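Bump. Still looking for Small ubiquitin-related modifier-like structure tokens.
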Amino acid sequence: MSGDEVTSKSVPSTSETNNIEESSEQNIAVSDVNTGAVEIADDKTSTSDDYIRLRVITSDLNNEVHFRVKAATPLVRLKRSYCSKLGHQINELRFVFDGHRITDEDTPKKLGMMNDDVIEIYQERSGGGISFV
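Sorry for the wait, here they are.
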């Protein structure tokens, strides 16, 4: 693939996702109305074996989005796409895989992700520290 594709029925893309095209085709059928499938690819051509399907789920389990990403693509692209699609700022959310926070430099390959692995989304919190008076 030469560009990125977004497949969604719930939320239209915004101008912030520059190289993403919308398609009416639904790649993954899920009963939840808030579900969409998003494909993120690098500009380099490769075989389809390099792709991994990931599920991004909010902590309250009310929203699930499926992504198809290349194993070597930094997950910051997935994070940006998710935030843009749902109208969040990237610093408002915490992306977690297997109990560990995902950094911008992490890739699915580096984290050992496999098809249908789950990335959990949590609202970023501040405060709550110990006060020394």
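The radius of gyration is 15 Å.

Edit: fixed formatting.
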